[in-house]
Automatic annotation (TrEMBL):
A GO biological process held by the record: methionine biosynthetic process
Root EC class: oxidoreductase
Pfam families found in the cross-reference section: ACT (PF01842), Homoserine_dh (PF00742), NAD_binding_3 (PF03447)
An example molecular function term from Gene Ontology annotations: homoserine dehydrogenase activity
Protein name per UniProt: Homoserine dehydrogenase
Binding site for NADPH: 105
Residues that bind NADP(+): 9-16
Amino acid sequence: MKEIKIGLLGFGTIGAGVVKLLTKNSALLEEKLGARLSLKKIADLDITTDRGVSVEPGVLTTNVDEVLCDPEISIVIELIGGYEPARSFVLKAIANGKHIITANKALLAVHGEEIYAAAAQKGVEILFEAAVGGGIPVLSAIKGNMAGNNFSTVLGILNGTCNYILSKMTQDGVDFAEVLQTAQELGYAEADPTFDVEGIDTAHKLCLLLSLCFGTRVDLKDISTEGISSISAVDINFARDFGYKIKLLAIGKRDGERIEARVHPTMIPVNYPLADVNGVFNAIRLTGDFVGPVMFYGRGAGMEPTASAVIGDVVDIARNMLAGISRRSAPLGYLDDRVKKLTIKPMGEIVSKYYIRFNAVDRPGVLAKISGALGASNISIESMMQTARSASETVPIVIMTHEAREMDVRKALAEIDAFDFIKEKSNLIRIEDNLE
């Protein structure tokens, strides 16, 4: 039986999952491939800690070159994460003619263009299904089954940590800090959760989705990114009263030769399927001109779902190798010379509906001044809610607007926040309820 030898960089949680899957389902994979997948080397700085899986003697090494330079290894799986040394290792593996599989969305979001070009020059493959949505097979579907569609929108709940926090805040009525601590205790959030809760991880994933859906190169710095740390239980409760839930949403929309690319807390209607995505689960909604709206849902992270996606990519490359072909599909689904640079629409030009919460002194004339400032900036009020006076003599005033330009809203809020009766910076959350 033919044997395809694999090298693994990184023996953390996901790496252990890959070993577990290859061991448990080896016979199944042989039945599907007609060949044996053999894990020849695993490189990691720590080869003594028990990962809960066993490997053959001599497989573990601290010398990365035993993976990158071994002529018998055809496929290298990169699960180190981060930018460096992952970038250098991947480029060296490519230079040595090895196919690459990675779950590293940060690496591809920042250095993807360089890596894709190197792979094209050497005629090797690079696949990264596990980089977006864990075990959800959305990238292969965009490149494959839905390749005949022009996509108009891509919306995603792409970070399990944020979705868990917002779900618990909605369910239990507690504030961000308390739920974050619980998430850290349960292992759903890192000790330093910045990449997750500030939306950076979601922006990395949106980079890849935009590239595959719209055939464009996207600079991470061009994606407007906001996290969830400013969301309070007060906002969650007001959203419920208005018929919405708050989710950290990745949003990509095609507008001619420009695209919207943004990550921020978003209110979506409670009867919309994305609103029912709770806990650590992820979901991605795509709209194609022929297929219409399609939603993918599943476990977006974790050992086993991510390992499933990684091995799916291994099987895809192995089948190509056995058939004597390579690069049957370009990394982004478009021919390399057809990937272009679409302009990212400036955030100030975005048109949306808005939820705005003010904390104001309860006295005559306050509402008139707020509504006057909004009207002067061409912002129309759809509805308003004011609660009873608190012990501090201030009240939250919540306004829901009709569609308005972001720059107009920001201008009005700067004026309103300067009024002496406003006691803290206003809080703004965008609303997406026109989702077709």
